[in-house]
Each structure stands twice: as C-alpha cells, then as structure tokens.
Automatic annotation (TrEMBL):
GO terms for cellular component: cytosol. Residues 57-90 have a biased composition (Low complexity). It holds the Pfam family VWA_2. InterPro entries: VWF_A, vWFA_dom_sf. Gene3D superfamilies: von Willebrand factor, type A domain. This is VWFA domain-containing protein. Residues 334-438 form the VWFA domain. Residues 57-97, 126-150, 228-267 are annotated as: Disordered. Residues 238-247 have a biased composition (Basic and acidic residues). It comes from the Eukaryota.
Length: 498
C-alpha cells in the first residue's frame, strides 16, 4: 500500500473469506493511490482492519459455541433414550417381560412367527445404523451453516468498512484536487483522523462545484496573482539563486520567457537576439560556405546573442545556494473583505465564495498568508483564517454552506484590515474587496487611515464589482484598482439576471 499497490490476494493472512472482500473494497475505493500519496493513512487503515478482524473472530467463536450447543442437544436426547431402555431391561429382570424375552418367544413359534421375529431384528439393526447416518448428516449441515454465517459476518464487516471510509476518501479526493499539498491536514497527534468532523462535512459538495466553476474563471485567478506586493518587480538585492523545480513551493525565477532586460551575452539560435556581426555571414557576395557556416551555428544554437531575461512569478522553484541579484521577497499576504449582504444573494454569492476559495488556494500554493473578513450589517463581521489545516478548512466549508443576508457596512471590515496591516507579518499585504457596489462611503476616519496606508506602506486596494458594469463613488474612494466581473456564463447566469 505504501508503494501504491494492492497486497497479493494469495497471502495467508488475513484468512478467507475476509481477505478477498477487504481487498476488493480497497480496490473499489482506490485506496493504494491515497496511501502512496499520503502514508499517514496507513496507521488508521490497519487499525481499522485489525478491529474488524477481532470482531469477526468474536463472531466466529460465538457461532462455534452455538453450534456445539445445538450438537449436544441430540446427544443428550440419545443418552436419555438409552437410560430409559436400560430401565426397561432392569424391569424385565424383576419379573416383567422385556423385548428380548418377547423376541425369543416369537422365534419359538411356527414359520410365520419366526419370520416376524427376523423382520423385527432387521428393523432394529436398521434403526441403529440410521441413527449413526443422521449424526453425520447433522455434522455436515452444521458445518455448512457455520461457513454461511462466517461469510455473512465477513461481508457485513466489509460493508461497514466501506460505509465508514468511502465518504471520507471522496472528501479527501476533493481536498487533493483543490489544494496542492495536504500535509498540514495529515499531521497531528493521531495523524489522519477518520472521525474528524472535517471529513464528514457536507461543505465538500459546495467546494467541488465552486472548483469546477473556477476552471473557467481565469479573471479571478489573474486577480489573485496581482494581490500582495514584493513580487518579481521592484528593487533587487543579493539573495539565494532559485531555479525551476517541479512539485516545489512557488516563487520568482529568472527566465528568458520574460525578456525584460539585457543581462549580458549568450549563445542561442534566436535571430531576433543575435549580434549584428553574426548577420554578416549572410551578406551578398560572400562565398556559399559562409552561409552554410551561419546555418550550422544557428542549428547548434551557437549564434552570439544578447541575453535578455526577466522574472517569472508564481513558478515552482527551489534554492540552489549561490547568491545573485534578484527580487528576493516573496508575494505578500492577502486580506479579503467579502460583502455578504442580502443584495449579494444568487449568482453574486457564488462569485464571492469562488473568490474566497481561489484566494485560499492561491495563498496556499504560494505559501502566503490569507485572512477573510465577511461583513454585512454594522459590526457584523465574521473572521476566517484561510489556511489549509483542519480548523480553518472546517470553518471555510461551513462558510460555503452559509446563505448571505443582512445590511451593508464597510467601516468595520476596513478598520480590522488596517489594524492587521500594522502587524509586521502583514505589512506587505494587499486588500481585495468583493461587493456589488451598493455600499455607503466609509467614514472620514477610515478614509484617512486608508490614504495613510497607501502613502506609507504602498497599500493597494483591489475592488471586484459583481453586479455592476461601472464603479460607484464609494468604491472609487476606497480602491486603487477596480475590476468588474464579466464571466457570468461560467457561474450559470447572465449579465442581465444576476
């Protein structure tokens, strides 16, 4: 299982019929794929298997005791019958005729009477032999009954195992599809806990639907990438070099795919970047061999060229050790202010929840902090720490099942966001406000704090309007960048019925 393979069905333990049924259940749930990716599943899985085996053995012992009890009842009846016959023989010795004396008298009679005695003797012998045959048949029936009972008990236990693990594996599969790395969910004092409320939540269905919609919402993904300062742009300093590496954390790498500046000279096969003297080999009047020389150097990517490079953001990378001049800082944190008033119900609510989920996914992928303030009426603000751990994810699943309603007041969420910006770890954060634009302007005190943060910290406030084709005066005063959501078809709505 650790290698992603099912155990061999020809193993000696556990015994049949449990082994084949249990392996079939593991294969049905694609368990080897999960245990290979998340070895933390192995301990609870094996503990569950041992618990089922213990229960099966207890049922087998109870069935054996029951069968032994049933087999002893006919024997006790036979012993009672033998005792009664002994009493009858003793009674004959006391002067009462027994069956042996009666048989002798019958055999001493004439031909017909002798024949009757012989038939009686044969009948008694057949009766004794039949009792032995009935005992063997009873043993076979008891054995078959016991095997059927054990098979049914094993099937019931395997079915119980599937009922417990199948929903959790489906939810784990959805979590694996939504997030790149689930190690924080697996680590803990007991590892993977099947009984945790997280794996029983109905919110995974909402997450699955939102994740499918996000596949067609490129504008939301692009918006999340713009959030948080200190990325590939800005001042540079000496810092460890980083190169592209699959399945690693995301950061900033140097790449020729982003030709922003000339870093020196290099060799390549790109005609647009080659030095002028490389082109003189193609000049008219030169021998044919010079043209062939140019073609060979171009085919071998040996043309002397300008080394034009830039910085790609949000790419998987790893540090190599040597220092270089580069944008060293990572992408900054994200603060989400989400309007959950009654006017956001319907398709707007779907977009708002999709933004929250994409911010969480992007922050987790890029190892950034993310915090959500869901606001409606005055002082009605709910805070969520958007991290991929069990408590935070459980709160997010509950939020995805929540229906929007109430009034709209932006003062309190903005005050909380500005308070968080004063913390050292959040000083480079950006704010994204998701609303339909039907809001009142914030108070003068909040606006003054916003302007100070923009001037002193370089704060950027991105506004995402859902439900309006243009901005509003309140959003113009709050935001440095305003985005209007356009992809209504992706959420099952149109521009005119949201």
């Amino acid at each position: 299982l650790r290698k992603g393979l099912l155990p061999s069905p020809s193993g000696e333990w556990p015994a049949e019929p449990f082994r084949s049924g249990f392996l079939a259940a593991l294969n049905k749930m694609e368990m080897p794929r999960f245990t290979r990716r998340y070895p933390q599943l192995l301990d609870p899985l094996l503990k569950q298997m041992l618990s089922l085996l213990e229960e099966l053995e207890q049922q087998q012992q109870e069935q054996q005791q029951q069968d032994q009890q049933q087999s002893q009842d006919p024997m006790q009846q036979q012993q009672a019958s033998d005792q009664s016959q002994d009493q009858m023989s003793q009674g004959g010795a006391d002067g009462q005729p027994d069956w042996e004396e009666q048989m002798e008298e019958m055999m001493q009679q004439g031909g017909s009477s002798g024949q009757e005695g012989q038939e009686l003797q044969i009948s008694l012998e057949q009766k004794e032999g039949g009792s032995q045959g009935d005992g063997n048949e009873m043993d076979e029936e008891a054995k078959e009954s016991m095997e059927e009972a054990i098979q049914k008990a094993a099937d019931d236990l395997v079915e119980k195992f599937e009922e417990q693990w199948k929903p959790a594996m489906e939810n784990l599969q959805e979590a694996d599809a939504a997030f790149d790395n689930l190690e924080d969910l697996m680590e803990g004092p007991v590892g993977y806990d099947l009984s945790h409320a997280l794996w029983k939540s109905d919110g995974w269905r909402e997450m699955k639907e939102l994740r499918k919609k996000l596949e067609n919402l490129k504008e939301l993904r692009d918006l999340v990438r713009q959030l948080g300062r200190a990325s590939g742009k800005g001042p540079k300093r000496r810092a460890p070099e980083e190169i592209e590496a699959r399945s690693q954390r995301r950061g900033v790498i140097r790449s020729s795919l982003q030709p922003e500046e000339t870093a020196g000279l290099t060799r390549s096969g790109d005609l647009s970047r080659m030095l002028p003297f490389e082109a003189h080999l193609l000049a008219a009047g030169w021998p044919r061999d010079t043209r062939l020389l140019h073609m060979v150097r171009r085919a071998e990517r040996g043309l002397m060229s300008y080394d034009r490079q830039g910085w790609l953001e949000d790419e998987p990378c790893r540090p190599t050790g040597p220092l270089e001049i580069r944008p060293a800082a990572q992408l900054g944190p994200i603060i989400v202010c989400l309007d959950t008033s009654g006017s956001m119900a319907g398709a707007r609510e779907t977009v708002a929840k999709a933004v929250a989920l994409e911010c969480m996914r992007g922050a987790h992928r890029q190892q950034r902090a993310c915090h959500l303030y869901a606001f409606s009426g005055p002082s009605d603000v709910k805070e969520l720490e958007l991290k991929v751990d069990a408590p935070s994810l459980l709160e997010l699943l509950a939020f995805l099942q929540y229906s929007f309603g109430g009034g709209t007041d932006v003062d309190r969420p903005l005050e909380l966001s500005l308070d968080r910006l004063e913390q050292k770890d959040w000083a480079q954060a950006d704010i994204v406000m998701v609303t339909d634009g039907e809001i009142a302007p914030p108070s003068d005190a909040v606006l003054h704090r916003l302007e100070s943060a923009k001037a002193d910290l370089g704060l950027e406030v991105h506004g995402l309007l859902v439900g309006r084709s243009d901005s509003s005066p309140a959003m113009d005063r709050i935001c440095t960048h305003t985005h209007v959501f356009q992809s209504w078809n992706a959420v099952g709505s149109s521009r005119y019925d949201y």
